[in-house]
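hey team, just a heads up i'm posting the complex here instead of the shared drive bc the drive is being weird again. everything in one block, sequence lines first with there labels, then the predicted structure for the whole assembly after. its two chains so it's a bit long, scroll down
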Amino acid sequence: MSVLASADQPTLDDFGHDVWWIVLIKIVGIFALLVVMTLFAIVFERKVVARMQQRIGPNRVGPRGYLQSLADGLKLAFKEDIMPALADKPVYFLAPVIAAVPAFLAFSVIPLGPTVSLFGHRTPLQLTDAPIGVLVVLACSAMGVYGIVLAGWASGSTYPLLGGLRSAAQMVSYEIAMGLSIVAVFLYSGTMSTSGIVAAQAHGTALTFFGAHVTGPSWFAILLPVSFVIYAIAVVGETNRAPFDLPEAESELVGGFHTEYASLKFALFFLAEYINMVTVSSLAATLFLGGWRAPWPISLWSAANTGWWPMLWFFLKVVVALFVFIWLRGTLPRLRYDQFMRFGWKVLVPTALVWILVVATMRTVARSANLATGEAVVYVGIPVAIVLIAALLIGSRASNRSTRLAAREAAAGSIHPTEPEEPQVLPPAGPRRRPARAGGPSRAEGGFPVPPMDLTVPPSPRLRRESVVTGARADGASESGGIVSTGRRGTATAEEDGQ
Amino acid sequence: MTVLAAAAGTGTHLGGAETVVFWILGPIALAGALGMVFSRNAVHSALWLVNTMLCLGVFYVVQQAPFLGAVQIIVYTGAIMILFLFVLMLVGRDSSDSVVETLRGQRVAATVLGIGFAGLVGAGIARATTNLTVTGLNTDQLGGNGNINGIARLLFTRYLLAFEVTSALLITAAVGAMVLAHIEREPGSRRTQKELSRARFLTDRPQTLPGPGVFARGNSVAAPALLPDGRPAEDSLATGIEPQEIEQMPRPTDRAQLGSPDDALGTLDPARDDSPGGRTR
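-- predicted structure starts here --
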């Protein structure tokens, strides 16, 4: 297996020698793939979320409803294109394009498989690669922010502007955590090219465990667990997905930066958002989940990592990652904006920095102690990661202690569970205070206003009027025609009837 | 990246693909620079500058410095220009430059000096780079182990001091800005949400204040809300704004104006008589 794998594993030298029509095929293929993945992701999301909410989800258009997103997309394309009167026209037009183009570009460095034979040419299943491969993805996501900022600004309206600012602030903040989480992977694999990172996860380290020879894990998700967790959290914020979808919180706002957009321009934003989701999922698969390489039980089959099979493993991993995105959306409540920013800057970024320090130390120790890096990770890194995660868990539990205690007391029936040492009844204040009646409860029960418990309902004014009307009709019923009988007309006043 | 690979194969000569890239992107970069200077709108200027920066990033990549190109795009266009845009957007979209000259003749002077400066710099660079022996970036002077490793080695050995001093400078600037913008508060002087809530419930009005313009004929902030009996509600007046009297509908004075409750529902009968409520007396 290892021989075959190394023969098919493309290196940096394999790129840049393709015939032009093979490059064209790859470009068109990736474009079509991304569009199809977007259509799939939308239906998949709606169906999965529906199942999680005990619904069925879209089931009308096409077989089992799987063409729903295609129909929606076509409908969107035929809608009226609105140009707001106050919009800055060139920028308003450019913004969705700027959002969509980098989303497509980022996928050009994602390796989909090993070197395969395409119409007689041996070529890697990847559009291109560079020594800076992963940085291309980061650069594209940095450019994508422009689309959002400019869309918000060019709409010429306040709400899109605020939504754009919030989206951009969120994306810029979480990009930092995302970039820092990837640094450990660079340190560990010794390269930034995506194909090189996949190659670095090809083989686990041979470990000797009390005399038994074990092949250690090779995925960076296991070797660098802290990086993986930070990456997973950061990309959810980066792609503006729930629970971090504050700028366009769909149950609270009409929309974020794209409030003023309609028709095809809105479709481009939608497309860009879902492509970004697919891209970060495939980057997660590439950086942390072994790329296109088959997962463990399948990798025992010798042909698993050759030919076109790896594309299947790759897309399975991507779909699993997409499922996690949807799962998060279906499970977690939305964060408040300050909590969200605090989490990004005060938890994710420092943790990532400490973790980079740990990984760098580990590399140095491994080099000086002449250990294989895999051994160093298994003996040092994983314990450190466990300690780090345990510290975070204990820290969050400690900071939530008062809330937890309060919840327990509230469950036990306490009225003021949060501050039990305070006096239970606060003095009533202001003119609301009435002379205390015998037996009646205090008006301000514990500081909170309660309606008067001893309220007696006054007699209905209608009853009084009815009696007046009947009395008046006794005098002059013949003049008024005797129409007044039932219903609302029965509420005529005495003056009217008596005129 | 095929361009990069093609360029890498040609060594120190200007490869065909590199020439094509240069003659396409060069004018675009220049157009971006000119557009930045001549745009009336500040955000458009920023966008032209982004265009130029992107072109420069591609140039770096083509000239065998892919890391520099990526950093140019990520850091300069992705982070710094976004911050610029933030500020420009918050200033307001109609804040175009004033065309009134405060210094007489500054336009002419600026044009002449600018062209002169560009000529000087261009001539100097042209003189300095003619007949220069060009060595590529991937040679031994960078350590010979690829672009990124070479840059890393130089940064963390020969230029370590400059690198650290630069980062210290940037940190100082960032911390200084935060210190200047920070407002010192006595610890505990700011009431928590819970304390504020308790204090509010101890007053006469635990509920929120009425909004402006409730039951009124205008929705301006200056329009007070009306109480059910028609008086303006004092609580609804916004602070700092002169309350305006909104012209009210004349209050009904007698039964004829008041109509019957059915008048509010309207009628479909055209032959309705004009007595209130449409009923015959």
